[in-house]
Write a structure and sequence with these properties.
The chain contains twelve helices and five strands. The chain has a five-stranded mixed beta sheet with strand order 1-2-3-4-5. α2 crosses α3, α3 packs across α4 and α4 packs across α12. The longest helix is centred in the C-terminal third of the chain and has 21 residues.
Length: 279
């Protein structure tokens, strides 16, 4: 399995990515029957954990354990499937093409259809994680990531679409297994019942994530001191193209990676088999 960047690209940017560190990560992969994982993926793990060996190994264990045990998020990741096609009409999401001044990638997400009956949390999570994977595939290590959520159109009925089990798995993965340096979570157009939403989410959020969370209830200009207009779509007073256009371009990128998503899932099946034998 090849990624869209090379290990040499990563090592030029990050000299901390030593051969000794890579060898330790490869040893772990061999123990888990994951020898087909490319070195480029190891660079992503290591950089996300600031090149700390023990932290990287914990991240890798969580990454593969959750991905093999949570098919509702990480299996059948083909946007041509009917269920995902339906969710693509309900959601608009994209990695914005201009990073923030720190070089952080900004992942944007909002509702395109506000009918709660059409919203499926697991598919929304799956598509968000595919978006992260697409960026890692094409560009490799990043200084950091920012999540930007627009709550416009979210109503109280959407709370009935939330599964506590899914929320628990999501936050375990984001906090312990997602191989990125998460820097901030911004929520704009915060709804009046946000306290009810937070009462569901907070039990699964660690203190680090809580400190990253910024809620914005006023004008969109509130966000500008964190994310300048040059990094935002014109829908939000920014200089980029509108979300609808950017979303369409992003979907074409995901479609181009259909083979990659399938191959990545196939490799993970080897990990699942080896772990069952050990148990």
């Amino acid at each position: 399995m090849k990624l869209g960047h090379t290990i040499e690209d990563s090592r030029k940017k990050y000299p901390e990515l030593t051969e000794e560190l890579l060898e330790k990560l490869k040893e772990w992969l061999q123990q888990c029957n994951l020898s087909d994982v490319p070195q480029e993926q190891l660079a992503i793990f290591a950089q996300s954990c600031y090149f700390q060996t023990d932290a990287t190994l914990r991240c890798m264990e969580t990454y593969y354990r959750i991905r093999t045990s949570t098919p509702e998020f990480f299996s059948n990741r083909d946007i041509k499937l009917d269920n995902l096609q339906c969710s693509l009409k309900v959601l608009e999401f994209v990695i914005l093409p201009v990073p923030d001044p720190n070089g952080y990638n900004i992942i944007f997400h909002r509702l395109a259809d506000t009918k709660a009956s059409k919203y499926f949390l697991n598919d929304a999570i799956k598509l968000m994680m595919m978006t992260v994977d697409e960026n890692l595939y094409n560009y490799g290590c990043s200084p950091g990531y920012i999540f930007l959520f627009d709550m416009a159109g979210v109503n109280i009925a959407h709370l009935t679409r939330i599964s506590i089990g899914s929320i628990r798995k999501l936050f375990e993965y984001v906090q312990e297994g997602m191989p990125v340096r998460l820097k901030a979570i911004h929520v704009i157009n915060v709804v009046g019942f946000m306290d009810k939403i937070l009462s569901i989410l907070k039990p699964f959020m660690n203190s680090e994530i809580l400190e990253m969370l910024h809620l914005h209830t006023g004008e969109i200009s509130e966000i500008y001191k964190y994310i300048p207009p040059m990094c935002l779509p014109k829908d939000y007073g920014g200089e980029l193209d509108c979300i609808k256009v950017l979303h369409g371009e992003h979907l074409r990128k995901l479609e181009q990676l259909r083979d990659y998503f399938h191959e990545e899932e196939t490799i993970r099946q080897n990990y699942n088999t080896s772990m069952k034998k050990e148990n």
